[in-house]
Amino acid sequence: MSKLKHIVAWQTLKYQFGFYCAVFTLIWFVVSSFCWLLIDIIIKGTTLEESNELLPLYIVGSLIILVLCILPFMYVINRTISKPMKKIVQAINELGPDNYHIHIDVPTPHEFAEIAQALNYMSAKWEEAEQIKESTAKERTLLFANMAHDLKTPITSIIGYSKALKDGMVTDPVKQSEYLDTINKKAVRMNELIDRLFEYVKLESPENILHKTNTDIAELLRTSVADIYTDFERNGITLDIDIPETPVIKCVDSLEIERVFINIMNNAIKHNPRGITVRVSMDHNGKVVIADTGTPVEDDLQKQLFKPFVSGDASRMSKNGSGLGLALSYKIMKKHNGDLVFESPYNEYTKAFIICFA
To answer: pLDDT tens digits for 75-88?
Structure first.
């Protein structure tokens, strides 16, 4: 409908222009002819009858003068109005969901050039939106493909162990207990994976609203460290903690930020060998650094750390990592207008995750 309006407007403009030219031509003929007659009568002193005999000659002369005057005018009009307008109308007609690679070049420095620039900008934004849409669609496809892959392994184990128990293939009570324990662990793993996926998808939803309050994030970080302190001990990890005693107030969703702290510290536990050192620090501006002396991250993997399911299959399977913790943390920080970055190496540490608040 909008394209039709533009076409009708352009056709109406051309008809109006043609009408004005026709009226101008008619007036030119009438006025110029009478002017020639008056000049002939006044200057030469001819009678009206004699001047009427020369009227055809006057009309031809007027027509020649009109043509000589109107040709440059028509050339200028065609160059500055007609051609640019045709380009713009053609581009509007071609622009659509399947064809947004439109660029109009209007060299004349007037309103049509501004219209062309606005249309080019709209085309570029449309193309950018389509690229983001395609990228998001690919990311979602990969997300669910990886989710299906990670669920398939525990499901296969559960089916195998449960069938063995059902068919009476395992009669030893100790073995039966081991099988049931494995089934339980696999089911817990699946439940954790589904919960993480739900959290990730929920964060992408525009209906998801953060419940921000002024929070002492220094105390929140201390609480988070205390919550998983036994996990650090169990893995023989030495903690180096440097958190300000004075409050560091930020307007945040405390539950979501606590999740970020826990996710990143759990990442240091799950994806490193025993006996490493982990440093958890915060400055007075709220910048948090969680660094460790553990296993370096490959260069190719560093660029994709905050995408879902990029921690590596072997790492996830051996350490029970979901591959979603860092992706969730990154999205939470972005929703807080903050940032989460990775650096390797970081001072005397192998690597570090740096949390920055707005």
So the answer is: 666 666 666 667 77
